[in-house]
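Working notes for the structural subgroup meeting. M.R. asked for a predicted model of this chain before we commit to crystallization trials. I am recording the input and output together here so anyone reviewing the notebook later can reproduce the run.

Input as submitted:
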Amino acid sequence: MAFNKFFSRLFGGSRDEDEIEELEDESEGQTPQAEPEDDLSDTVLTLSQEHPLFRLWSFRKGHTGWMPPPLLQLSGPPDRPRLLSGEELTKELSRLRTAIDGAASSRAAQLPRTPDDPCPNVDARAAVFMTRDQLAAWLFVYPPIGEGQELSKEMVSKAISDSGIQYGLDETLPDSLPEKPDRYFHLFPLAQGTAAIHGKDGSVVDLFARKIEREVTVDEFNQVDYSSLNLVQNVEEGAVICRIILPTEGVPGKTVQGKEIPARNGRPAAVPQGRNTEVSEDGTKLVATRSGHVEFTGRAFMVKPLLDIPGDVDFSVGSINFLGDVHVHGDICSGFTVRATGNITVDGVVEASTVEAGGDLVVAKGVLGNNQAVVTAHQTVYAKYLENCRVHARESLQTDCIVNCDVYSDGTVQVRSGRGTIIGGCVRAATEVNASIVGSRSERPTMVILGGQPCEDFEKELLQQELREMSDELDKVSRQPDSPAKLSRLSTLRMKIAVDQKKLEQFDKEDAQLLTLPPEEIYDMRLNGGIVYPGTEIRIGMAKLKVKQENRQCTARLVDGQVCIL
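Returned structure, recorded in token form:
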């Protein structure tokens, strides 16, 4: 009776309410697909009710009267429930479906099509599913058909032997599985390999900044402390500049078939070793070999020599020409010269002297030039105030006050902190001038020129003057009587003239490039002023404007080729 009832269900016979209720009682409230734990739901392969596997399950259930629903879950033992995740899990579920589709379809084809067809006798079958990387394997058992032999230990052992699994094997499974009530239509973790652990690459941990921020901070009183810009990173000999994390070696893995999985060793870090630095014997530190200033050049840390002057630059010290950074704790007195290839920091005042920095120039108390001082920085000039001097800044200029100075900046000029005044003289900037006050109530002549490359323009003028002077001298020497001294002098002059002419040609090429600037860049040049007094002249490119009346909170810029105050 139960056998006929099974076939009527299997082949689509009608079901009345009593029969449906009886089916629910038989399955004890279970659905054909078991519900896994929530956190492992993505490891389950879900099949439709029309799949051949469910035909086999229904046939077996009709014979036994009870059968746990199929559960195809790619998880591990309870202590290690998850073996796969992400894209890897998706691919393996797809491979599992392909394997189940083929085996279940072949086995379901042997089932009798009608109740009158003879039922074949087919033994239970154990199949092994192995991941593509052979790091995990599961066992799946199909039940017997008809009077076929039930699952035995020998069947499980043969399936394991045929698959070649020999490492990470669950030795208890061949003995315990034949006795499990859910031994059919379930995936059981069979073996787990050991994944290779690749070595970690080495790395570098910096203890000094690779880029020093040059931002000027204005306090609540609109003041700037130029002595605390800290552009110099001092280091003592033997101090650690950066720590080096060494790479680790990889640990080989092993597949469930006992094959070794090679592991990649970590790659060593690129050590940023530069001049005056060395790597420690154990290779874990980059240390300074001399005291100085730490600087990162783009690829490596280097220690630049630091010349520390504890007092003033005067007759006790003399003029300075140094390959590195210079820190003057006092003043630079009149008549002396300080040149350095790096940064120059002056804690005091620069008097009527010459100062040239290959990097930044910081003057904490300002410049009192007496119309003789020349200060130059190939990067940025920071000064408390500038009075009666000539200033060249290749990048930008930041100060509290400019009085009667000739200023050349290939970037911007910022005079907003402190008094923020520009009075007298001429300020030339490539792009922008920002000041709280430009000019004075007494209408002292003050000029602001925007555009071009002011520093290069000044150098070009000096070069042209030098060429004129050497040409005049060449004419004078040519008229002298012939002598070895005359020939030597003529040769020297001609060589200098040739070199200067080459430099002048390079300046002309750069000027030609500036003439091709897009209009929006030319029209973006501006003077921003809190107050602009009469007596101020503003030039932008070829256009100029003389201020006739006081203007407040204004911006001067080009509008239709004319300088306008907005």
